[in-house]
C-alpha cells in the first residue's frame, strides 16, 4: 500500500497531526466544535476510566484503549487491530462522524492517544489530531476540567480499513533486512536485558532501537519537527527509505509513527509487534545492540 503523502511539516492532506492547547481552545468556540476523545491508559493501571471520572476536558468522551481500539489479545498480539465493525461501533458510540474534526488526548506523552489517532486514520477518518501534551498541558494552561459526562449524539463514522500501511511478522522481518525497522521500546527491553510483559526477551534481528521517550520533551510534548527529522535520520529513517515500526504490542509504535509523521517520514506499523513475533517460536530473536544505527542512550 502506498505510504501517506507527507509534507516536510508532517501534514497529511491539510490536517496536521498535532494541535496545541491555544489552538484547541479556539476551535472549541466553533459550531460544531471538535469531538474530544479521552483515551488515558496505563499499562500497569490504574484504569484510564478512573482518571476520566476524576476530571476531563469539558465535552470529552472516554474511549477504552483495550476495549475500543484493540481486538482481543492472543497470538495476533496483545493489542491487535479490532474488527472494522467493532471499531466503527465504538467510535459511533463516542460521537465520531466523518465530517467532524476529532481531537484525542491522554495524560501527557500521547502514547495512547497516538494509537487512537493512528486507528482513526487507518480506518478512514481524515480529520484526527492529537492534543500535544495531553491533559497535563490543558490543566497547566489553566483551562477548566469537569467530572460531568456529556450526553453523546451517536456519530455516523464508517470504518474502512487499509488507509495506512501495515506490516505483519513476515513483512517486519523482511524490512529489517531491506529497509529500516525501528523498535520503539525502551533500550533494555530491546537489548533483551529485561522483558516485563512478553515471554521472550530481545528484538527482531536487524531492527534499530528508537525508544519513544526520545520523541518528546520532559513535558510530554513532541520535539520540533526539525529535531525529530534529525533524530530519525541518524537512525537511517528518512523519507528516502522504507521505514516500519514495532514495539511490544503496537501502542508505543503508533507514537513513533506519529513522531515520524511530524518529521515528514512515512512509515508502516507492525501492529502485532513483539507480542505477535514471539508467539511463533520459529521467528528468530536477537539480543544486544544491532546495526550501525543503534541509538546510544
From TrEMBL:
Keyword Ribonucleoprotein: no
Pfam families reported in the protein's UniProt record: Rhodanese
Keywords: Repeat, Transferase
Domain Rhodanese: 30-147, 175-286
Statement: the UniProt record of this protein carries the keyword Transferase: yes
Top-level taxon of the source organism: Bacteria
Name of this chain's protein: Sulfurtransferase
Amino acid at each position: 500500500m502506498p505510504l501517506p503523502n507527507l509534507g516536510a511539516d508532517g501534514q497529511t492532506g491539510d490536517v496536521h497531526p498535532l494541535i496545541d492547547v491555544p489552538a484547541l481552545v479556539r476551535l472549541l468556540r466553533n459550531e460544531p466544535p471538535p469531538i474530544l476523545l479521552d483515551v488515558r491508559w496505563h499499562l500497569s493501571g490504574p484504569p484510564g476510566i478512573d482518571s476520566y471520572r476524576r476530571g476531563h476536558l469539558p465535552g470529552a468522551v472516554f474511549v477504552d484503549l483495550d476495549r475500543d481500539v484493540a481486538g482481543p489479545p492472543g497470538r495476533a498480539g496483545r493489542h491487535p487491530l479490532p474488527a472494522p465493525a467493532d471499531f466503527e461501533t465504538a467510535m459511533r458510540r463516542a460521537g465520531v462522524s466523518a465530517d467532524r474534526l476529532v481531537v484525542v488526548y491522554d495524560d501527557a506523552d500521547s502514547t495512547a492517544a497516538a494509537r487512537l489517532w493512528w486507528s482513526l486514520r487507518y480506518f478512514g477518518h481524515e480529520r484526527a489530531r492529537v492534543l500535544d501534551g495531553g491533559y497535563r498541558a490543558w490543566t497547566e494552561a489553566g483551562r477548566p476540567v469537569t467530572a460531568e459526562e456529556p450526553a453523546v449524539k451517536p456519530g455516523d463514522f464508517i470504518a474502512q480499513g487499509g488507509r495506512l500501511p501495515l506490516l505483519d511478522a513476515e513483512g517486519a522481518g523482511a524490512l529489517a533486512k531491506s529497509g529500516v525497522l525501528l523498535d520503539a521500546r525502551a533500550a533494555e527491553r530491546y537489548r533483551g536485558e529485561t522483558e516485563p510483559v512478553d515471554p521472550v526477551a530481545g528484538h527482531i534481528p536487524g531492527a534499530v532501537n528508537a525508544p519513544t521517550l526520545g520523541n518528546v520533551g520532559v513535558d510530554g510534548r513532541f520535539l520540533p519537527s526539525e529535531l525529530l527529522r534529525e533524530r530519525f535520520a541518524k537512525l537511517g529513517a528518512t523519507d528516502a527509505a522504507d521505514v516500519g515500526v514495532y514495539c511490544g504490542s503496537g501502542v508505543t509504535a503508533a507514537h513513533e509513527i506519529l513522531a515520524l509523521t511530524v518529521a515528514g517520514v512515512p512509515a508502516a506499523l507492525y501492529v502485532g509487534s513483539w507480542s505477535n513475533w514471539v508467539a511463533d517460536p520459529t521467528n528468530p530473536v536477537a539480543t544486544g545492540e544491532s546495526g550501525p544505527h543503534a541509538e546510544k542512550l
